[in-house]
Structures are given as C-alpha cells and as structure tokens.
C-alpha cells in the first residue's frame, strides 16, 4: 500500500478571497459541490470575517447554506473572532480555523491586532468550539518571510505554534504567505516548530509565487509532514499580503506526490474539471 499524503483543498476560500470581480454565490457553490466529489477529506469553503476587510467572502452564510454536503467531507471556514465563530456555527461549518501571524507587521495588516491580541481573541473561539464539539485548525502566516518585517525567525513561528497547540488546535498549518520560502528556510523553520509539535499535527501551506512550493513541500515531506494545503487551478492570494498571489495548484501537488509514490485519493478527472472551473471564475481562458 502506498503511503498517503492528504491535500486540504483551499480553492473556494484562499483561492477566491482576493478576486476583484464579485463572484456570485451560485458559482462558489458549484465549485464546492464539484470539489466534494474529488475525494478530499477537507475543503475550506469560506471565511466568516469582516466584509469590509474581505468583500469577496461577504456571502459566506449563503455559500454554506447552498452547498450539498458529501458524507465524510469536512467543510471548514475561517473564524478570526467570536462574531465569525457565531456565523460559522449558525452555518453548520464542520470545523473552524483561527489564523495568526509569526510577524507583528503581518498581524497588524491582516487582523488589525498584535500577535498577542490576536491569540487572546482566539481563546474564546477555541473554548466555544470545544464545547460545541467543532475541531479547530490553526494557521500561522509568514512562516519564513514577511512582506513588512523581512525574514521571520523560526523561533517566532515555534512560539505561535505552541500557543495555538495549547489552545487546542488539532493541526497547525504553516503558511508561506508570500511564497518566498526556500527549502533551506522552510527546513530551518520546521526544525524549530518540530521541537514543539509533532509532524502528524502540522501541515504545509505554501504559496507558489516564486515557483518553489513543490521544493518546499519536498523539504517538508523529508521532515515528516503528510498534509499540504493547495487550491485547484493555483488560484489565490491574501488580500493583506502584497505579492501573495497563487496558492500552489492542487493538480500540481497531486501529480508531484504521485510521482514520488504517495497516494492522495484524489480523482484527477474531477480535479481537472474543478481547476478549469476555478480558472474560468477568475476570467482566465482554459489552458
Ligand atoms: P477590525 O476592523 O479591527 O474589527 O477588524 P472590529 O472588531 O473593530 O470590527 C469592525 C467591523 O467589522 C464591525 O462592523 C464588526 O461588527 C465587523 P461595523 O460595526 O463597523 O459595521 N466584524 C465582523 N463582521 C463579520 N464577521 C466577523 C467580524 N468581525 C468584526 N468575523 C477583523 C478585525 C479580524 C474583523 C478583520 O481584521 C478581519 O476580518 N480580518 C480578516 C482578514 C482575512 O480574512 N485575511 C485573509 C485570510 S488569512 C490568509 O489568507 C492566510 C492563510 O491563507 C495562511 C497563509 O497563506 O499565510 C490562512
Ligand atoms: Mg494562504
């Protein structure tokens, strides 16, 4: 039996959050429904964040209400605070995610808060989720490089990761938000984080801005990580991270992993259709 590596599909959330054209909820629902038949265990659907900050995802409740949930698939959403958590719960999200930063500059830009203020806000979210039986994932952004503060010290990432673990996050996803990480910097960052958290509870979330995401995935596989975030069609970017375009494409990661003998359990025909759909939503001609 080949070893399994899981791809957590980010397309509907990270892939679309930065799009200029307001994409109708019906198109987002169609994308999620198609992705539901691709073999993913987890799909990130949307974010319950301030619509002033991320107008593209202002229809989070409508999208969550419109999707057809497939058995065995977890439909996750981002929740930066209790207001977001309440929205997520009302929308029957399967899991929620809190998102912190390893640098102060990015924390301010993305959450209008210092790192420690943001972590304080996550405490009631994780407590409520525990009471409600909802799993909480934690993200850390700018794990190697920050567009505002420069290179990120690995110890800063380990410190935030420990805080998220202590709050009860079941998995921590390490974000190379602007895609500037290199295998060496990713490896140094992982070495520090692994002192706090085992590889089974970590995921790699690498944007492909500089075309190095696959190399960074390989560096992470060597450190024992077996979950990677990706977006069909390679869409995406963070609106508060200048230059952060392009999540690594799901189809590219799946083929790369297959080439190394890992199983992802994904139906590549469906992935191809979803990638074409995602690209057309962004107005790109299919290739
Ligand atoms: P703030 O302006 O400091 O918030 O933003 P506030 O508490 O002062 O509230 C301002 C207004 O927003 C109020 O409305 C609130 O009700 C409303 P008003 O009274 O002015 O009409 N509000 C909300 N509305 C809906 N849902 C909510 C919510 N919270 C407040 N949850 C805040 C602070 C955290 C809200 C804001 O900064 C925010 O929403 N940030 C989210 C930014 C974001 O979504 N970024 C992209 C996702 S992270 C990412 O992409 C990185 C990742 O992919 C990993 C990686 O690549 O690194 C995960
Ligand atoms: Mg991201």
Plain-language structure description:
This protein is of the alpha/beta class. It has a single domain, classed as TIM Barrel, CATH 3.20.20. 41% of the residues lie in helices and 16% in strands. The chain is built from eleven helices and ten strands. The strands form two sheets. It has an eight-stranded parallel beta sheet with strand order 1-10-9-8-5-4-3-2. The model has no long low-confidence stretch (mean pLDDT 95).
Give the topology.
Blueprint: E1 6-9, H1 11-15, H2 25-35, E2 42-47, H3 60-66, E3 74-78, H4 82-90, E4 95-101, H5 104-111, H6 115-132, E5 136-141, E6 145-146, E7 150-151, H7 154-167, E8 171-176, H8 183-194, E9 202-206, H9 213-222, E10 227-230, H10 250-259, H11 268-281
3-hydroxy-3-methylglutaryl-coenzyme A binds next to α4, α5 and β5.
